[in-house]
Amino acid sequence: MNELLSILVKSLSNISLWSIADILVVSYIFYKGYMLIKETRAEQLLKGIILLIVLIPISYLLKLDMLYFILNKTLTIGVLSIIIIFQPEIRRALEHLGRSAFDDVHYQNDRESLKKVINEITTAVENLAETKTGALIVMEQKTGLKEVISAGTLLDANITSNLLENIFVVNTPLHDGATIIRNNRILASGCVLPLTSNTNINKKLGTRHRAAIGLSEVSDAIIIIVSEETGIVSLAINGKITRGYDKERLTKILIRIIEGRSKKKVQTAGERVKSWLRLRTQR
């Protein structure tokens, strides 16, 4: 017992602050990685991989040669299969990492300008909902949507509720696609969005809703949807959709989301500066 205790004390004494920092960083990376795949197809795959990793050494120790051979080859081939099958999830994870590392918020931090823009958008959405005119409005955030924009018609116009309403009038050339907003400007209309491959979505949701969810899965854009069947206003963010917004509620949630992201960026930048100053002082 004393020998075991001495070994433990000796091991702990050899642990430096850098070792602790290393463990914490690796733990954080694993945690964030798991949160990215949580409640996705990749989560079930991860459980299967962990089971394989556990079974391989067990089969080797028990001299189950055939089982060991099969499991070993399955794991080897599986790595390539994961990259091919789960390309959308891997892409989304890398884009999320890129957004966290390199902040590039397109919206102005001026609260009054932000409120004015959002008011124009929500006024248009309210009027479109009353007339049951289908609409799909995308508010670009950190992730650039150049690929989506290039497939539409460039406008580069000031945001007004009248213009937004006119864009989605039935039988007009641009009404059937998405309208992209960037830098407080209506950048393009008639844009085609990627449809979600999620099979668990409510069957009552139409193509507009599926396109909105699809784009929110691969970007941090905020997408507003107006149903042409019911006039219900929905919001798609980060692969999730919520429904039943009125003008007041939609205005509050949009301001909260955009301002929250801006504040997070400022705090993160401030923390980086403080860390840099601490390192400089220690040197």
TrEMBL record:
What keywords appear on the UniProt entry? ATP-binding, Cell membrane, Membrane, Nucleotide-binding, Nucleotidyltransferase, Transferase, Transmembrane, Transmembrane helix
For this protein, the record's Gene3D superfamilies field holds: DNA integrity scanning protein, DisA, N-terminal domain
Q: What is its EC number?
A: 2.7.7.85
Q: Where is the DAC domain?
A: 87-247
Q: State the reactions this protein catalyses.
A: 2 ATP = 3',3'-c-di-AMP + 2 diphosphate
Q: Which GO terms describe its molecular function?
A: adenylate cyclase activity; ATP binding; diadenylate cyclase activity
Q: Which domain of life is it from?
A: Bacteria
Biological process terms from the Gene Ontology for this record are: cAMP biosynthetic process
The residue ranges crossing the membrane are 15-33, 45-62
**Main enzyme class:** transferase
**Oligomer status and interactors:** Probably a homodimer.
By sequence similarity, the record places it as follows: Belongs to the adenylate cyclase family. DacA/CdaA subfamily.
Describe its function: Catalyzes the condensation of 2 ATP molecules into cyclic di-AMP (c-di-AMP), a second messenger used to regulate differing processes in different bacteria.
Name the UniProt record assigns to this protein: Diadenylate cyclase
* Native source species: Clostridium saccharobutylicum DSM 13864
